[in-house]
Structure to design on (382 residues):
DNA sequence: TCCATTCTTGACTGGTCGTTCCATAACTGT
DNA sequence: ACAGTTATGGAACGACCAGTCAAGAATGGA
């Protein structure tokens, strides 16, 4: 039919995502992307559209990957409090080993109040995480692992907000013990 | 001795800070600053140095102003839990009325892992807030308003981290009730 | 084999970036 | 009134920005 692409689109998008994650939207130039992805400028435009479209696709890829990881942890056959603690431990590990933090959070603060498309993805992400936590908390109440006095809706929001806080705090301190202190107190409201 | 400036330096810095707060560091151009501040390009360079120096001065101005506001609230002659609740209510109000969020948090995620000067200010800010909370929590323990079982150090860290989380969450939802739910659960660990 | 289609290449666009130069204006102390 | 000093204004710098163009290369189907 026609000449095939000389690169894999999924791999290229992954590289773009990594670079946006490293540098942020504004600080990443098309030239940076061309160099990092290793494809030609025009191929980039043909495949992904302009810079903002490529960014949105990168952001959505990150969101999907991240959510998937969390959902897996929450689907384990373990006590709910332990599963949620695992999620917090995972985020703390990630924050310490990777100074880029969270691409969603970075993009939220950089762009969400000026760009509706970014705001939509950010909002979806919030909703997905809160839903995941809420569902697991409801199950916990059914199993008797969580007091029926607690409000799963509100706690789900609280947990997500706490995770965001930890990610921001982690950029100001690399002290794992401090972050674990925060997580421990956060999780104490579950018992 | 020489020709005096035709503008007030403090006012110019305030305007620069407002603009950086609105747009972020990368998205703010020197031309934007010249237009917004209303002074000549060369005067800007003479007075504040280059773009990054001006940004650092703006960031430090914001940090000082913000900290002062919080310290005032924590110095009131009221029960400690109420004072801390006031701080949270204040942050929620600010987050809802001002979509720019927190300049420190914005700068943390945009720049802290690439710029040591920004990281230093961000780190100082963390320390100042944690110190303020810790001191107030220690006083609370002395007055019997807070259980001696609690660890003021860890709770101080936890409170600051929670505030950051709320500021990030507020960019994804403008629903005041949700943010107040989060604050209520956060503060429940004090009692 | 040849055509239609798509991908790749590299030069190129107009515009904007942060920063600097230099001539001139305006002020103070003498 | 003059000298010394600093502020101002506007033009200019080279570098880089996001995005486009046209020509050639490579493929699959007929």
């Amino acid at each position: 039919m026609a000449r095939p692409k000389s690169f894999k689109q999924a791999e290229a998008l992954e590289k773009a995502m990594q670079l946006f994650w490293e540098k942020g939207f504004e600080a990443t130039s098309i030239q940076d992307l061309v160099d990092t992805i290793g494809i030609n400028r025009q191929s980039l435009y043909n495949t992904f559209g302009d810079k903002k479209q490529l960014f949105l696709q990168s952001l959505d890829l990150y969101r999907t990957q991240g959510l998937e990881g969390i959902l897996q942890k929450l689907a384990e056959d373990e006590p709910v409090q332990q599963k949620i603690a695992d999620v917090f431990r995972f985020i703390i590990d990630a924050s310490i080993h990777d100074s880029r933090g969270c691409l969603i959070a970075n993009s939220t603060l950089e762009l969400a109040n000026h760009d509706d498309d970014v705001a939509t993805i950010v909002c979806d992400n919030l909703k997905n995480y809160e839903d995941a936590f809420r569902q697991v908390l409801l199950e916990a109440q059914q199993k008797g692992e969580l007091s029926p006095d607690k409000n799963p809706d509100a706690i789900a929001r609280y947990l997500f907000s706490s995770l965001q806080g930890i990610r921001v705090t982690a950029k100001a301190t690399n002290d794992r013990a401090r972050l674990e202190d925060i997580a421990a107190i956060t999780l104490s409201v579950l018992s």
Q: What stands out?
A: The mean pLDDT of chain B is 97. Chain B touches chain A through 47 residues (CB under 8 Å). Residues 1-6, 39-43, 46-47 of chain B lie near DNA strand D (CB under 10 Å from a C1'). Residues 137 and 151 of chain B are 9 Å apart (CA to CA).
